[in-house]
Amino acid sequence: MARILITGGAGFIGSHLVEYLLRQDHEILCLDNYFTGSKANLLHLRDHPRLEMIRHDVVNPIMLEVDQVYHLACPASPVHYQYNPVKTIKTNVLGTLNMLGLAKRVKARILLASTSEVYGDPQVHPQPEWYWGNVNPIGIRSCYDEGKRVAETLMMDYHRQNGVDTRIARIFNTFGPRMALNDGRVISNFIVQALTGQDITIYGEGQQTRSFSYVSDLVEGLTRLMNRDGVFDPVNLGNPGEYTIIELAEKVLELINTPSAIIHRELPLDDPGRRRPDITRARELLDWQPTVPLEAGLKETIPYFAARLKQENIPVAASLNF
Ligand code: NAD
Ligand code: UDP
Q1: How much distance in Å is there from the Cα of 19 to the middle of ligand 1?
Q2: Which of 121, 154, 214, 280 shows the greatest Cβ crowding within 10 Å of its Cβ?
Q3: 34 is catalytic
Q4: Mutation to probe ligand 2, out of 185, 246, 301 (largest number of atoms < 8 A from CB)
Q5: This prediction's pTM
Q6: What CATH number does the domain containing 97 carry?
């Protein structure tokens, strides 16, 4: 049994990780400022004897004694990370610095939840870890993608300079239950729009691509990376299945009987044109690959959103087609 700190543990991915690690008999400290996460994500574990919840903002230092740190604290949806961009940079830079300081002091192993956004609008496709990326340093996404790039730099420098036992996971678009209703990312938007009978908003022509990983696959990859010795270079964790945003909308409309129509909205600035992970390194080093195809993941996620809408008394104007 290890003592494990999970920053951002009340968020979408964090809450699944908390649940998984509690099942492995570990003791979990879940740290969150509840900006995009919520206590409701962990309500079912509220009385668990091995879970402790700490309200704390990672931009401030904290002293804790732990064996491992999963550092996830950071808003992940463009809508949320652009809400207060300066805070997003502080969270990525000061937050990672503080967690690295903690890991160094107590000799804990630390894993950073980095992102495929470090590749920016990629000119190499699919994206292997050796690709340095094509990122706009002064754009509206920079607070997040440049923030994560600095966070990766900090991880490598603390490793080289101080011998901190670091791991860097480059996470590609991930979805599943416990995404917030107002998350603003594409899968949650499309499902909520289809369920409530609002029009499905495709940004731009919808020919841009993304690769979507179901959350249970991601959690498996994160824990394998954390527990593999000696992997200090970044590792991509994502599902190589690649879909245009139009194809995604069509998939959602196949699974939900809805009066919603597809409409187009302006493409946000710097929106990457394509994205797909090369997961050779994860396959070789972690013996990991995704097991949940997009449609199976959607069939788990759609009923979750239907239940959430009901909880919030938001009328559902659609029925499920599966
Ligand atoms: P999320 O927004 O649901 O979770 C982030 C959590 O961090 C929330 O609980 C939030 O309240 C907390 N948080 C934010 N700022 C904080 C701060 N300053 N101090 C303490 N807590 C803070 O997002 P998620 O999808 O679960 O993402 C988790 C991590 O994974 C993030 O670091 C994100 O960058 C990374 N990631 C996610 C995806 C994805 O597709 N979901 C892809 C790439 C990377
Ligand atoms: N997108 C869309 N409609 C929406 C939300 C997003 O067409 O309602 C598009 C967005 O422009 C991007 C893709 O879907 O091309 C993925 O967006 P998301 O915000 O989920 O993630 P990211 O852009 O960070 O990969």
Answers
A1: 16
A2: 214
A3: no
A4: 185
A5: 0.98
A6: 3.40.50.720
Copy the structure tokens of residue 178.
Answer: 């416990």
* Enclosing domain of residue 260: 186-209+241-270+292-320
Cα angle 285-8-55, degrees, rounded to a multiple of 5: 145
The candidate with the shortest Cα–Cα distance to 16, out of 35, 1, 37, is 37
Are 222 and 248 part of one and the same domain?
no
Distance CA 247, CA 209 (A): 9
DSSP string covering 126-154, please? SB-TT---B--TTSTTHHHHHHHHHHHHH
- Alpha helix (H) residue ranges in 45-84: 78-81
Q: For residue 48, how many C-alpha atoms fall within 13 Å in the half-sphere facing its CB?
A: 20
Q: Maximum CA pair distance of the chain?
A: 58
- Number of other residues whose CB lies within 10 A of the CB of residue 259: 10
Q: In the predicted model, what is the mean pLDDT of the chain? A: 97
**pLDDT tens, position by position, 16-37:** 999 999 999 999 999 999 999 9
Structural domains in the chain (count): 2
